[in-house]
Amino acid sequence: MGAIRTLIVDDERYAREELTYLLSKFPSIQVIGEAESGEAAILKALQLQPDIVFLDVEMPKMNGIEVAKTLVELKKVPLIIFATAYPQFAAEAFRINAIDYLLKPYDEEQLKQTIQRIEKILSPAPTADSTEKPGKLAVETGGDIDYILPQDILYIYRDEKVTKIITQTANYEVRTTLKELESRLVPFSFFRIHKGYLVNLKYVSRLTPWFNGAYQLELEGLDEKLSVSRNYVKDLRQRLEL
In the chain, at which end, N or C, are there fewer CB atoms within 10 A of the end residue's CB? Predict the structure, then answer.
């Protein structure tokens, strides 16, 4: 996420200076302009295309609420944070989709929480090829369905007609084939080390030569060693090493 382009609007110079100083403590925030009136705020917003606007409510001629109603009609609508000494404006402010409402004098902790909210809103959404996805693996056990976080799985292996899933806290048996589980776990860091074994690379701690070009693999939190077929060793090392 690049710098968050910020416009400060307040008819009092001292208030603008104070907020500029407080925002300078946040590396993600870049103050790109100030405006001392509602009319100037709209012009600056058109010129500068800010990501966010800190907007004073009480201003002569054109107040912050009126400015906000104009800003939300722009082609690029900035996030709006109202600032006021009077809490009674809150209800009207939120009807205009303001993302937050700061009371003067500014409270640094409240401002910090506001910036965190802004950063979360403006952070780029994960792309389709992200390495981690939020989904969980559904495992049916005795009629119940358990949902497992893929990142909690140490390894998975095929044992005759069942597939066993070994996690940090529990073991599961499923009828799903290893091949199907492997395809569902593509977005995560899993790797097939043997025809019947799939391991989570994030837990690999050591690779030890064994015999006939095969290796033994150790996982964090697991006493037993797993066999890595020699056919998979080269690709495994490429996946594990920087």
Answer: C
